[in-house]
Write a structure and sequence with these properties.
single chain; 299 residues; mainly alpha; 13 helices; 0% strand
Length: 299
């Protein structure tokens, strides 16, 4: 019971931290998005390697990087993750937090579609209705914002494809992320040398060094909480709690930074929230049915 409660708290912490990340990226708006992502990658790499060495998994990571197949999957995952990070930071700094939130609302529905396409997953009627509602919500965004919500679609696609690649890869979550950031590090260093020729351009001044370095903790801390939650609570619960993140992002973009919210755009999100409600209800009922079946087999 205590383990499950701790897992729920860890999940809430993970998704809550991801939900308020726009506040952190806004605090770094004195740096270009490419520099922010480069700094994020390098400081996350430092923290990840400290954790890997503490847990004595260094050989596992090095062996994965030396294996051609594992390194190739990690390189693909790294490019998808780096693209996702860069686009989200760019969207945040360009007053498109709400569109970014839309992307993470859509992410589970893209996961369902990709599971059907590549892993042979079967989906029930409720899930198909949820996907249809989500797609209608996206379609309504076109007249609502005067164009295709490409930021949301690319964010959802890159993160869902990242999940597909991570499912194919052999490394665990922590080792895999360490391999990915290790492979991204040379690119991040190159970006810093090209775009920030002086320490002031890389950090925005001596007083901002610790704030920039905190980008590593802002990356690793929610992932650490998420990893603990994934090991200790049901995936059904985890799937429902994941909507905490985009909901906080949506509210921050709308209420705190005053991003435009027309009636048509709100109706679009109403369809998305309807899809989320169907998804959550279906997941909850599936979890109850699974527990009832398990209980009956034990008696």
């Amino acid at each position: 019971m205590h383990s499950a409660r701790g897992g729920v708290l860890a999940a809430v912490a993970a998704f809550g931290l991801w939900g308020i990340l726009p506040l952190f990226w806004k605090a770094l708006d004195f740096l270009p998005p490419l520099v922010i992502v480069a700094q994020r990658t390098l400081w996350a790499l430092v923290l990840l390697w400290l954790v890997i060495l503490w847990r004595r998994q260094g050989r596992q990571v090095l062996a994965g990087l030396a294996n051609r197949r594992d390194a190739l999957w990690s390189a693909v995952a790294a490019l998808l993750l780096g693209t996702n990070w860069l686009l989200y930071v760019w969207a945040t700094l360009n007053d498109r937090i709400i569109e970014g939130a839309l992307g993470y609302y859509l992410n589970p529905f893209f996961n369902i579609l990709f599971g059907m396409l590549w892993f042979g997953d079967r989906h029930n009627r409720a899930q198909r209705v949820a996907i249809a509602l989500a797609l209608c919500g996206v379609a309504l965004q076109v007249p609502a914002v005067g164009g295709v919500p490409w930021v949301a679609l690319v964010l959802a696609l890159t993160f869902s494809l990242y999940g597909v690649v991570r499912k194919r890869a052999a490394a665990g979550a922590l080792a895999g992320l360490t391999m990915e950031t290790t492979l991204l590090a040379p690119l991040a260093l190159g970006m810093l040398f090209l775009l920030a020729s002086t320490p002031a351009e890389a950090f925005g001044g001596a007083g901002s060094v610790w704030l920039v370095a905190a980008a590593g903790a802002a990356t690793v801390a929610p992932l650490w909480c998420f990893g603990h939650a994934a090991r200790t609570i049901r995936l059904t619960t985890l799937g429902i709690l994941q909507f905490i993140g985009p909901t906080l992002q949506f509210l921050i973009g709308w209420k705190l930074y005053g991003e435009p919210m027309s009636g048509l755009r709100l109706a679009s999100f109403g369809l998305i929230w309807g899809a989320v409600a169907i998804y959550a209800a279906d997941a909850w009922h599936a979890g109850r049915a699974g527990r009832a079946m398990l209980s009956s087999t034990r008696t």
